Predict the 3D structure of the following.
Amino acid sequence: MEVFLFPLVNVTLFPRTIKPLNIFEPRYLAMMKEAAATKTPIALGYIEDPSKVTPVNAGEPVSFVREIAGYGYVQIIEERVNGTLLVFLQGQGKLRLGKVIDSGTPYIVCESSIIPEKTILEAPQKSKLNSLQKILTRWIHTHISDPQQQDTFMRNLVHPEEVVGAFASYLVRDYDLQQMVLEFNDINEKVLFLHRLMESNELTV
């Protein structure tokens, strides 16, 4: 699968979550519009060290981003008078980034392969997921003052992947740990990992 690559420092896109993004750089404005028009997926590449960002050549992997990335489809919410965009990137899953394709575009186009995940929650982890959801619910009511926004947020927390993605995005303070959660291939491993973080006080709460 071909994907457009949007590299960002300390940002991870989880499946079944929505990432709002303000786009202002010309090449990424062009990328978002092209992705929306052609329904091309965008991979959100996690940059660990901005000082190591280097030019990339066709046929080579992108060395300055993590190989595993969340991907999704873009929805343009607002095009402002100054040309900048507010977009929502709707997470669909995760993939392994491959080599750069010679696309002739000012942004990076990559080969990629989708990574399948186990999404069935086993019985021993259900109580742990419930604990995570209770903490996330408390965080929502503490940090989001608008009742309508609270309700919208809560209605989107139906599946385990949605709870895990939102919990990792908003309550895990360490960005590398967020990326670690994404890289697990089993929802049960993700729940166990987040529950341990909760017990060790590695959260923003």
In short: The beta strands are 2-9, 18-23, 42-47, 68-79, 85-100, 108-114.
